[in-house]
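Hello K.,

You asked for the raw outputs rather than the summary table, so here they are, unedited. I folded two proteins back to back in the same session to keep the settings identical. This is the first:
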Amino acid sequence: MKTISLSSQNTVETAPGVQMQGFAGEQLMVTHLFFEAGAGPAAHSHPHEQMTIIVSGEAEFTLGEERTVLKAGDLISIPSNVVHRAVALTAVEMYDIFTPTRADLIEKLGL
C-alpha cells in the first residue's frame, strides 16, 4: 500500500504563480495545484486524459476554441491531445488527475 500526506510533498513552481504537488500510482496520478490570480500555464496538450476539480476560486478554461469559467465544486474533463489552458480569475486551488501517469511531472516533482 502506498500512502502519503499530500501537503507534505515537495512543492514546485510549474509556471509563474502556479505551485504544484503530486502523487503517482502505476497508471494514474493526481496533482494538487495553487494558482495566484491571473496565473496559468501556456496553452499545451499531452497524450494523457485529464480531469480537473476546482476546490476554491474561479478559473477560465480554454479547450480548443471553447471557453468556460469553473468555480469551486466544478469539474472538467480534458481529452487526450486537446490543446487547453487555464487562467486563474481569482486565487485557485485545484486537483488535476491524469491517466496514464505523466513522466514529465513525475520527474519535475521528484516522485
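The second followed immediately with the same parameters:
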Amino acid sequence: MAESLSSPADRIAGVLLALGATAWGVATIIVGEDVLLGIQTLDTITGMMYVTGLWAFVWRVYAAGAAGTRIGRIVPLGLLVLLPGAFLVNALSFGYVTYDDFPMWLLVLDACWPLSQLGTLVLGIAIAVTGRFQGVLRWLPLVAGMWFPVTMLTTIVAGSTASTFVSAAWLIGTYAVIGVLLAVSTRPRHDLSTGRPSVQA
C-alpha cells in the first residue's frame, strides 16, 4: 500500500532538497562562466548536494506511489538508479581538471546527468497525471522537471551568462520550494473521491 507524505522521512527529504537546490543555484551564480573552463569545486560539491536532495525526493515519491502504483513506479525507480550515477560522476571528477580529461568509462557514466534530469520531467508529468498530490505539489514537480530543457534552450538563444541566472532561478523557484513544502507539510487530507491519501500544499 502506498505511503502518504507526512512522515519524518518526508521532512528530511524536503530539507535535503531545499538545501541542495538552493546551494547549487547560488553556486552556479558564484562560479558563473568559470564552469566552462574546467571542473569547479564549489559547483561540484553543491551539485552533489542537489542530487542527494533530488534522490531523497524521488524516493518519497516512489514510496507514496505519487507517480502511479503500477507502470508509473518504473519512472521513479529509473531515477533512483540514474541519480547515484550522477552523484558518482561528480565525486570522481575531483581528480580531473576538465571534463575532456575523463576516461571513456567516466564519460559513459556522465550520461546519468542529462538522463536523470530528463527523467525528472517524465516524473513531473506522471505526478501531475496521477493526481495523488494536490495543490501546488501536483504541478510544481512538472515545472521543476523542465529545468534541463529550459536551461539548454536559454543557452542556445541567449548565451551562457543568461542561462546561469535562469538555471539558478529555476532551481530555487521550483525544487527548493518543493523541498520547503515537504519539510513543513502537515498530515495529508483524505481524498474522498478516490479513497486515497493526498498531499495538500
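The two ends are 22 Å apart (CA to CA).

Happy to rerun anything if the numbers look odd on your end.

Regards,
P.
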